[in-house]
Design goal:
The chain has 583 residues and is an alpha+beta fold. Helix content is 24%, strand content 20%. The protein has an eight-stranded mixed sheet with strand order 5-18-13-6-7-8-19-28, with helices on both faces. Strands 22, 23, 24, 25, 26 and 27 form a six-stranded mixed sheet that branches. Strands 1-2 form a two-stranded antiparallel sheet. β7 and β8 (204-208) form a beta hairpin. α4 (271-279) packs antiparallel against α8.
């Protein structure tokens, strides 16, 4: 019988079976015997018998002890009453009659909830079949792992930012899934979300990657370390399944497209949506108009509805009922669905319900395949507890900035938008939030303003040459483009690479350029320590100019150096706490 079934036997609350092990500091599942126990009072150690053998180890025997003022019941002649056996590793029970015993307090409902939420994390992102998951430590065996070699990290660090690629495949495996779409699919990357969690855990970004995005898929290793040749100018979804490609190939494709290091992956099929939504008792969605889609079988009225199982899967699969009936509009609906599911999973009625948590743990762990680096119970627990720290209001959903594929007459695919895509990728790569972490940002702005008091030149009066001194390749040109087109610093130029790399970005200026330096510092968010009074140089027009050297700390074109958050370019985005109706 599984833990759920045993935990509910004899009207026992499963939450009462999680016991703190004082040795390990972990909560452990302690299942009581199903057979009724004898009402004999608890044992007490007695002194060793004189001249007698046949007792317990060390010559000690156990006997019944009478409470003060009472007569002990007679024992059967010629034998001792054996003490109940204590489970290995369990703390010894207090002895009856011992003085100063503390009364046993009954657990309150609040304390039971703390026990459960301490060992269980409710955080799931689901698209067509994508998920980041909820689990219980003792259900580790449910999770399937896949070795993708050195593409994924060996372990997980609780002290660093991390990126998990969530992949929803269109493989028609599992009961009831044979009738969906392409029955013979090898399991392409149908729904894809790169989940970035910040180093300080104040924010997270869930970036959807369209399956019809045109990319170059690099060479990668398949089964038995065989190299699978890459392909150019193909749909992103072919990075998985096609020619035997595994999730490691999809991870490498994302890394080459964005420049972001992907640490781990989590992959699921259609059953994830059905089982997870059923486990939480349904997810509330909202429609701007009634929908009756014969293809996906979605049939819902206008307004709010609670859906689960097949209807939930139909909701995230529907393309022909929203927007322009394309995949990009379906992604928006999926993001709204994910936000709603996350709110439901972190709501009080889910986190305080042992029954829901057990169902959710079973559903999530059975639905997933992850890399070996996060496949161990202790590692999964660490990932979940770090995810739990992120506030809903600071979890941003957005999509890779794209534009129509110019190579097509009939528009069916998209390509990365060169104007805004690199900035979005750089913000994620450099751990910059897409939401306002207001208290921190306000403090940083005040500190910078205090350091940079004084007259500032107009932006079009600022003369600066830009060097790359440790920033990612192409950063000098990207920053130049931003300064000239967005910030009005038209008298700027790209001076190539610096002679040596710098850890920190610096701005060197001559005595007569302090006003220009203050203006550029305000535009870029440069701190006082980044300002370096020195000498000016001559630009290509023979005029004195400042030198901006982009160091290893450069956060991307247009991203302020002094802030953990920044306004994004024209990129539609929502946060997990927002409630919207699909239209």
């Amino acid at each position: 019988m599984d833990a759920q079934g045993r935990g509910r036997a004899d009207d026992i609350d499963p939450a009462d079976q999680w016991v703190l092990n004082p040795t390990t500091g972990e909560y452990e599942l302690r299942l009581t015997p199903s057979a009724p126990q004898s009402p004999v009072p608890g044992p007490r150690r007695s002194a060793p018998r004189s001249g007698g053998g046949g007792g317990s180890a060390g010559g000690a025997t156990r006997s019944r002890s009478a409470a003060p003022g009472r007569t002990a019941p007679a024992e059967a002649p010629g034998r001792d009453v054996p003490a109940p056996r204590r489970r290995r590793g369990a703390p010894e029970e207090p002895l009856p009659g011992r003085r100063n015993r503390r009364p046993v307090k009954k657990k309150s409902k609040t304390k039971k909830a703390v026990v459960w939420t301490g060992g269980v994390m409710a955080f799931v992102l689901i698209g067509t079949a994508g998920a980041a998951y909820l689990y219980l430590k003792h259900l580790e065996g449910n999770v399937t792992t896949e070795d993708v070699g050195n593409v994924a990290d060996d372990g997980f660090s609780k002290d660093e930012a991390f990126n998990i690629l969530i992949i929803g495949t269109d493989k028609r495996t599992g009961a009831g899934n044979e009738g969906y779409g392409d029955k013979g699919s090898v399991g392409h990357a149908d729904t894809n979300i790169l989940l970035h969690v910040s180093k300080d855990r104040t924010n997270a970004t869930a970036m959807s990657i369209p399956r019809d995005l045109i990319v170059d898929v690099p060479d990668c290793e398949g089964k038995d370390s065989a190299v699978i040749p890459g392909t150019q100018n193909v749909r992103f979804n072919t990075s998985l399944g096609q020619d035997g490609r595994n999730p490691g190939c999809t991870m490498k494709t994302v890394e080459e497209m964005t420049g972001i290091d992907v640490n781990h992956f989590a992959m699921a099929d259609f059953n994830a949506v059905k089982t997870l939504t059923t486990a939480v008792g349904g997810v509330e969605v909202c429609l701007a108009k009634a929908v009756k889609d014969k293809d996906s079988k979605l049939d819902l009225p206008a307004g709010k509805s609670t859906i689960e199982g097949e209807q939930a899967l139909a909701f995230v699969r529907t393309r022909h009922s929203f927007g322009n009936q394309g995949d990009l509009d379906r992604i928006k609906v999926q993001q709204q669905f994910m936000s709603s599911l996350m709110r439901k999973m972190t709501s009080g009625d889910t986190l305080t319900s042992p029954t829901k948590l057990i169902k959710l743990a079973n559903a999530a762990t059975k639905a997933l395949t992850v890399d070996t680096g996060i496949g161990k119970a202790s590692t999964l627990k660490d990932v979940a507890l770090e995810l739990k720290k992120v506030p809903m209001k600071n979890i941003t959903f957005l999509t890779v900035p794209v534009k129509d594929n110019p190579a097509e007459v009939v528009k069916a695919t998209v390509v990365v938008d060169d104007a805004s895509g690199p900035q979005v990728f750089n913000m994620i790569k450099n751990d910059v939030s897409f939401t306002e972490v207001k208290a921190k940002e306000k403090k940083e702005k005040a500190a910078v303003a205090a350091r940079l008091k004084g007259t500032k030149s107009a932006a079009d009066e600022v003369r600066v040459r830009i060097l790359n001194g440790g920033a990612p390749g192409g950063s000098a040109q990207e920053e130049l483009t931003y300064l000239q087109t967005e910030a009005g610093v038209t008298k700027s130029e790209n001076a190539g690479n610096a002679e040596k790399s710098l850890a920190k970005t610096t701005l060197e200026y001559g005595p007569d350029q302090a006003d220009q330096a203050r203006r550029l510092a305000a535009i870029m968010g440069l701190s006082g320590s980044a300002m370096k009074p020195g000498e000016s140089v001559t630009n290509s027009q023979g005029l004195p100019t400042m030198t901006l050297t982009l160091g290893e700390d450069f956060k991307g074109a247009g991203v302020k150096m002094n802030s953990s958050s920044a306004s994004t370019p024209e990129v539609p985005k929502t946060t997990a706490n927002e409630v919207k109706c699909a239209s």
